[in-house]
Amino acid sequence: MAEIIDGKKVAKEIRAELKDRVAVLRDKGVQPGLAVILVGDDPASATYVRLKNSDAQKTDIEAVTYKMPPGTEPDDLEELIDSLNADPSIHGILLQTPIPKHLDEPAFLERIDPNKDVDGLTSRNQGMLMRGQPRFISCTPYGVQQLLVRSGYEIEGKHVVIVGRSNLVGRPLSVLLSSKMADANATVTLCHTGTKDLSRYTLTADILVAAAGSPGMITADHVTQDCVVIDVGTTANAEGKLIGDVDFDAVSQKVRAITPVPGGVGPMTRTMLMWNTVRAAELSV
Amino acid sequence: MAEIIDGKKVAKEIRAELKDRVAVLRDKGVQPGLAVILVGDDPASATYVRLKNSDAQKTDIEAVTYKMPPGTEPDDLEELIDSLNADPSIHGILLQTPIPKHLDEPAFLERIDPNKDVDGLTSRNQGMLMRGQPRFISCTPYGVQQLLVRSGYEIEGKHVVIVGRSNLVGRPLSVLLSSKMADANATVTLCHTGTKDLSRYTLTADILVAAAGSPGMITADHVTQDCVVIDVGTTANAEGKLIGDVDFDAVSQKVRAITPVPGGVGPMTRTMLMWNTVRAAELSV
């Protein structure tokens, strides 16, 4: 039976460190502030925003949620982002996605001041990551990295195989883990829907990250006994239960270590948003 | 003996297409203009700039070179870039690197209007590439892609192994070729100085791109007979002769196809700068 990598535990450790960093900032007269923008009434988004507020509270970050109606005019959202960009008490701005379809999501994400873009989604911050000098790393990739390292699984020199090339996870994670920096410097293979014979790659992985959003797609046939498996997938089934990309029951019988869903990457993602907010506040001093 | 992939020939084909596109632009009253900024008196840089001017001439692009002395003040370079950013007759701006050490190269590259950044080096353009919606792709990665496709070597679905993660070549190429778009969609493994047992990866490559800047490092032991080898390396030896990263004599006896150095990727890189300039002019209409 594989070792279970406990995301809740590591996230809690990081939150404790963040509280200490916030205390240092407060001593300097800086109260880290996070603005969360929620447009429309998607229930999943509302839940995520609630969890983010709860995480902020646990780390002494002041979080303010801006709720806007489903029919929000582009001008109004622009105005809100511009005013938050200009507000010195706000260090991080998060636009909860997806936003209603009549609003140009990429354009609004891009409108966020790169110095406050704690989700790391502006092209400026993605470009900095690509050059190996990241300022804010997107929260899920950052969470995957920290979860591995803080659980004792070295990344440096390893073969990391990532399945999925999304803008939010697979793509930035592939860049991050292959960069020449501490807790990275891995040889990375990025697999996706265009990959032929997936197991040809996954069977050579020291670390396998499943981030395809395809429930149970990684089976015992895709892994070796030395593999460390990180499951980023979280698809809700008909009963609302979260299902990972990895067939946990079968794969956990075979591999060296594995994350559960939920309780693996999820808590890390939320915590790294707090990390980025604290970092934004530190950079503002 | 491997097929020889002829970069000169493909570059010439592309230049002919570009001339046609320039003719269409001229009919609309638009003359594509490229500004090349050369700071200091590095002889290699001066040669590159001369070659770029010659390529521009061959494709009916109007190239203007701005020569600045080695002791150029930051303010003066800023002023030049700002004025070129504002000049409607200039569609592309290229800052020839390296620039003298007292000038902050990344900051000056970043100062170029992303709409005129035909080298694709601003973080804005790198971020767009990362999101799979490139505007200007850096010239060498773009040249490698076009060289493969136009020489009849399909990229889609193949395993591409890249050796070297430089900002100019390996990193953007890994992103480009793994993107979900035509002439890409490959499974890409990015190797580098932190990779242990390089041949473990290169021996599984359908396409191997050597972009490490380490003369002759890819030997016959690194390749299989089915491999298509692209050599991006160009290191000048003591006699000033350009040496690739691939041991051409030995490797060309074994593999399916290979680029020579010189005459492989080099002419493609220069031609894709013209491509990007024409595209910038087209986007400006």
What can you tell me about this protein's structure?
The structure is a homodimer of 285-residue chains. By secondary structure, chain A is an alpha/beta fold. Chain A has two domains: 88 residues, Rossmann fold, CATH 3.40.50.10860; 128 residues, Rossmann fold. Chain A is 40% helix and 15% strand. Chain A is built from ten helices and eleven strands. In chain A, strands 1-11-8-7-5-6 form a six-stranded parallel sheet. In chain A, a hairpin with a 5-residue loop joins strand 9 and strand 10. In chain A, helix 6 packs across helix 7. The first copy, chain A, is globular, with a radius of gyration of 19 Å. At the A-B interface, helix 5, helix 7 and strand 6 of A face helix 5, helix 7 and strand 6 of B. Strand 6 of chain A pairs antiparallel with strand 6 of chain B, so a sheet runs across the interface.
Give a summary of the structure in a few sentences.
Two copies of one chain form a homodimer. Chain A has 285 residues and is an alpha/beta fold. The first copy, chain A, is 40% helix and 15% strand.
Which helices and strands occur, and which strands form pairs?
Two copies of one chain form a homodimer.
Chain A: E1 3-4, H1 7-27, E2 33-39, H2 43-58, E3 62-68, H3 74-86, E4 92-95, H4 105-111, H5 123-130, H6 139-150, E5 159-163, H7 170-177, E6 187-191, H8 198-202, E7 207-210, E8 228-231, E9 235-236, E10 242-243, H9 248-251, E11 257-258, H10 265-284
Parallel strand pairs in A: 1-11, 2-3, 2-4, 5-6, 5-7, 7-8, 8-11
Antiparallel strand pairs in A: 9-10
Helix pairs in contact in A: 1-10, 2-10, 6-7, 6-10
